[in-house]
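Could you help me review a protein record that somebody else here produced? This is what I was given.
***
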Amino acid sequence: MNRLLVLRSGPISARVDAVSVLVGVIAWALTLGVAAYSLTLGDYEIPLPDVLNTLAGNGSLVMTDVVVNSRLPRVIVGMGVGAAFAISGAIFQRLARNPLVSPDLIGINAGAALAAVVMITILGSGAGWIPIGALLGSLATATIIYTLAYRRGVAGYRLILVGIGITAMVTAATSYLLTLADIYTAKSASLWLAGSLSGRTWTHAALMGGTLLIGVPFALLLSRQLRLLELGDDLARTLAGRVELARGLLILAGVGLAALATAAAGPIGFVALVAPQITRRLLAERVIGLLTSGAIGALLVVVSDLVARQIFAPTTLPVGIVTAFLGAPYLLILMARANRVGRGG
């Protein structure tokens, strides 16, 4: 069976993997199904037909307020941050050729969180400035990590070790800042640091929509360079040249996606690590499809948020606690396997 399909539109053509497309479509269908069910749950339970009727514009004012203005932004933000974290993780793992490299493990998300906490606790900035701070914090952290890890190229394990060290330092600084804040600000910031979709609004949904509209096409345009870099710097330089420029642009895409997702919902852990590896297993090959990985990431976050809302109902857990509970054992398995075979994966 030929897995590759060639799509043509005038002078533009692209090859797509049929299995990857099928897996992505199934993942998005499951994501939308879970999201629709999630819209029925809450203090005021609404039957699914009434939810669908309201989404079609035929609901009452009360139904519209509950479903469209209160619950819908939460699930849209959940899908968006899941896709953004997963695509970011896939970019970093393919660049480093190591499944242990993800923005939450090497400090990118921690840098975004530190910058956001500085803006919340010290500068008292409004919600509109936090994404900018998170992006700048992530870029600064990524620059420091890349500079310290670079030795005639960037090896995966060196990147992990430097990233773990930077993460520890940045996390310590974040904790110190929380001790200086008043109790209400510290509690709000701590909830955000756990990774939560509670209280998400259409402002957060618009942020994630804009992030994906810009970040995903940018990453896809660089996918050919990403595939060449997986072959090694020497071969990539021979075939395409300007290796460092391509790597820098890909890192910029990964950092931007992770930073703005962190700004929208906090540093939700392990999605960037786990989603690309689930995708890789489902596709039964080493190459991780960016779009398919995004679909798996969206499904992970939406399902985790549903579990977070229901497992101790009426108390709702931050979704980051559920993703950490699910992702931590997988990290241990990856590390044990890496130790056994002498490298990641």
Notes: Residues 61-96 form the longest helix (36 residues).
